[in-house]
Amino acid sequence: MSEYDLVIRGGTVVTASDTLRADVGIRDGRIIAVAEKLDDADRIIDATGLLVMPGGIDSHVHLAQPAFGGPAMADGFESGTRSAIAGGNTTVIPFALQPRGASLRTSVVDYHKEADGKSYCDYGFHLIISDPSPSVLGQELPALVDDGYSSFKVFMTYDDLVLNDRQLLEVFDCARGCGALVMVHCEGYDAIRFMAERLEAAGKTAPYYHAVSRPQSVEREATHRAISHAELTDVPIMVVHVSGREPMEQIRWAQQKGLKIYAETCPQYVALTADDLKGLNMDESGGKYVCSPPPRDHASWDAIWEGIRTGVFQTFSSDHCPFFYEGEMGKLNPKARTSFRWVPNGIPGVETRLQILYQKGVVEGRITVNEFVALTSTNHAKIYGLYPKKGSIAPGFDADIVLWDPNRKETIRQELMHHGADYTPYEGLEVTGWPVMTVLRGKVVMQDGEILGEPGDGGFLKRSLSPYAVPNGAPAL
Ligand code: DUC
Ligand code: ZN
Ligand code: ZN
Questions:
Q1: Would the keyword Hydrolase be found if you checked this record's keyword annotation (predicted)?
Q2: In degrees rounded to 5, what are phi and psi of residue 277?
Q3: Domains, the chain, ranges and CATH?
Q4: Cα–Cα–Cα angle for 466, 117, 111, nearest 5°?
Q5: What distance in angstroms lies between residue 393's CA and the mean position of ligand 3's atoms?
Q6: Quick one: which of 238, 379, 392, 465 could link to 262 by a disulfide (CB 3.0–4.6 Å)?
Q7: Residue 253 carries which DSSP code?
Q8: Is 319 in the pocket of ligand 1 (CB under 6 A)?
Q9: SS3 for 2?
């Protein structure tokens, strides 16, 4: 019997802290050696000229989420995780959503039925709390956190999901008590409703007005409010999908005060702008880019880079939330053509996240390759209770690895994608740097764009409490 099942030989190993020429030895799905030269393996993969990095962990994706009567998502677990591994990811964390009035536990059980046996990569679940009733906060949520669902998301907008300030405070307080990390969607419900109704009354219904209806001030105000509530309850929070300078500055201000406020940004906030929503002459094609918060402008891209470079942002996630463009279920469906308000809200991106950050960050000289690994993998593992199992290349970690060709030039195109959607919002974007192999716990699941893995290769991850969720220390109320 060989010492290793697999040796990845001759590559450059990149972690969040180091870049080194080393071989990686794998046995039983785990890394057991990182050394100058390893032999004695059942299989040797030649990684000469390639970067050997921890597989991407995308801690913000939406798969098979209930549609509330609207169009269904373009990805369930099978196609969504197929797309994830094609893009160099080995773990995703989608959301088990509690519909109002439903039990949280039942929502989780139902979501497992969507996922189990279908996933090409490993997965955990965040929870979405839409109905923080006394039984949810008193019993269900603490029990689920204990069971490995150690983070949840709350919304400050959307009819079906919005929590009022009192509810936010109750949820934050509960998170503090059970050690969970709260992710917050920061956009103000009333301001958006006000704007949307005004715009519609003026006949401004094209997709572009989606962006006009939720400007940065709406995001800034909600971000500040969430931070204030987090300060009051002394609970760390993660502000997700931050789109530009105004919310970024609120977060930086809070961090400089010593509050544990973390932040995530996404490819759409460095690669798309609100002008993309104009489509051709303000027609419906702009619907392809409708997501929330909306993409902003080039000055906002600069602000996001400032936040990435200075450490305001810890994670770079896709917020993959795929809908079709064409057809009855798509962004062009008849109801969606009547107003931006009804355009399915979200864009695909799990397969292109790494390439976009590598191009715009590493190739264009804004971040180091080590920062790239931190932003796409290591920090996700640390923040969401998966470390030291996932997120690095060192003895003891799962052998979740992406082999990256730093010289490969590609143009992002729908025909390269493995997702269920019928378009990519990044069509035509030229990048240098591409994932050429994905290894999940020692198994090669993607090579040169070909999917070699199978549904069911991925397993559910019970996550630990996040060390990032530990409060600053004020006595509990
Ligand atoms: N928030 C998300 O995180 N994803 C899609 C839509 C939204 O509002
Ligand atoms: Zn959101
Ligand atoms: Zn999202």
A1: yes
A2: -70, -10
A3: 56-370 (3.20.20.140)
A4: 55
A5: 28
A6: 238
A7: H
A8: yes
A9: coil
Separation between Cα atoms, residue 180 and residue 66, nearest integer Å: 24
Residue in the structure block whose two tokens are 């059942």: 42
Taking only the tens place, the pLDDT of each residue in 358-385 is: 999 999 999 999 999 999 999 999 999 9
Closest CA to 182 of 238, 260, 266: 238
Is 241 close to ligand 1, i.e. is its CB under 6 Å away? yes
Which atom of ligand 1 is closest in space to residue 293's alpha carbon? 8
Interval 290-325: pLDDT, tens = 999 999 999 999 999 999 999 999 999 999 999 999
pTM equals: 0.98
**Which residue has the least CA distance to atom 7 on ligand 1?**
292
Question: Dihedral, CA atoms, 393, 394, 396, 398, nearest 10 degrees?
Answer: 10
Largest Cα separation within the chain, whole Å, is: 74
Q: How far apart are CA 360 and CA 431, in angstroms?
A: 8
Whether the CB of 185 sits within 6 Å of ligand 1 = yes
CA distances from 197 to 200, 214, 282, 405 (A): 5, 12, 19, 49
Q: What is the SS3 assignment for 401?
A: strand
- The alpha carbon of 95 and the centre of ligand 2 are apart by a number of angstroms equal to 11
Determine whether 372 is exposed, middle or buried from the number of CB atoms within 10 Å of its CB (0-12, 13-18, 19+): buried
> What whole-number distance in Å separates Cα of residue 349 and Cα of residue 346?
10
- The distance in angstroms from the start CA to the end CA of the chain is 59
8: tokens are 């990845």
Q: Give the three-class secondary structure for 450.
A: strand
Closest C-alpha to 223, from 257, 194, 195, 183:
183
Q: Of 430, 428, 402, 433, whose CA–CA distance to 415 is shortest?
A: 428
Q: Looking at the chain, how many residues does it have?
A: 477
> Which among 329, 401, 294 has a CA at the least distance from the CA of 13?
401
State which amino acid sits at residue 321. Answer: C
From residue 24, alpha-carbon distances to 1, 434, 439 in Å are 18, 20, 12
pLDDT digits (tens, 9 = 90+) for 219-248: 999 999 999 999 999 999 999 999 999 999
